[in-house]
Design brief:
This protein is α/β, with parallel strands linked by helices. It has a single domain, classed as Vaccinia Virus protein VP39 (Rossmann fold). It is 30% helix and 29% strand. The chain has six helices and nine strands. It has helices at 3-14, 28-37, 55-61, 74-84, 123-136, 166-173; strands at residues 44-48, 66-71, 92-95, 108-114, 137-148, 155-156, 159-160, 178-188, 194-203. Strands 3-2-1-4-5-9-8 form a seven-stranded mixed β-sheet, with helices on both faces. A two-stranded antiparallel ribbon has the order 6-7. The protein is globular.
Length: 206
């Protein structure tokens, strides 16, 4: 187990899901963007860095049948699995590092990531991430990535992050990705502080 994985396992083994800064009772902004795409219930969706997020619950109750989740922490996914019970029986649960995990080729209609990409402080890791997107998202598929905005925190969970404005975030993916929209979010943590996020919604290369 590497240091990153060890860090996140410790977080989810020692804290309740609603006692971390990124907790959302509902991932409303993410769900709204996914809904706006207009895909059918048969769409293949992957939530990267899903952790114990309740976005999964809303996708399943919203009728989406093919949802995959990926996280570095098996403990985080187990929290979500226990919470969902029978509702999660058709979810594809994956534990692994987004930079190196074996993902199926040209499979996903929608790629969603809220707050994994900004932990990739090494440019080589960001290149590896984008390579995974290009490999596993269908040509013309949708890529939704959220990070801390320029006025967001400089660290999260004790780890350094990279902050982005919409153009900077889009530039990490390159001109082959068409920027369809971007939006912002003022996320309120469980203890009442505000963290500013930026969301970019792109279309993957054909």
């Amino acid at each position: 187990m590497d240091k990153q994985q060890e860090h996140w396992e410790k977080v989810y083994q020692t804290k309740s899901p609603d006692a971390v800064s990124w907790f959302q009772e509902h991932a409303t902004r993410s769900f709204e963007i996914i809904r706006s795409i207009g895909e059918t219930s048969e769409a293949q969706i992957i939530d990267v860095g899903s952790g114990a997020s309740t976005l999964l619950d809303d996708l399943l109750t919203g009728g989406f049948k093919h949802v995959s989740v990926l996280d570095l922490s098996a403990s985080a996914l187990e929290v979500a699995r226990r919470r969902l019970g029978p509702l999660g029986q058709n979810v594809r649960w994956m534990t692994g590092d987004i930079r190196t995990v074996a993902l199926p080729e040209q499979t996903y209609d929608i790629w969603h990531d809220r707050a994994v990409f900004h932990f990739l402080t090494d440019p080589a890791d960001r290149i590896a991430y984008v390579r995974q997107v290009v490999k596993s998202v269908k040509p013309g598929g949708h890529v939704i990535v959220a990070t801390f905005a320029p006025d967001g925190p400089e660290q999260c969970s004790g780890l350094p992050v990279v902050r982005y404005d919409p153009n900077q975030l889009h530039d990490e993916f390159g001109p082959a990705f068409e920027l369809l929209e971007h939006t912002s979010e003022a996320h309120k943590t469980p203890w009442g502080s505000v963290q500013h996020f930026v969301y970019c919604h792109c279309r993957a290369p054909y």
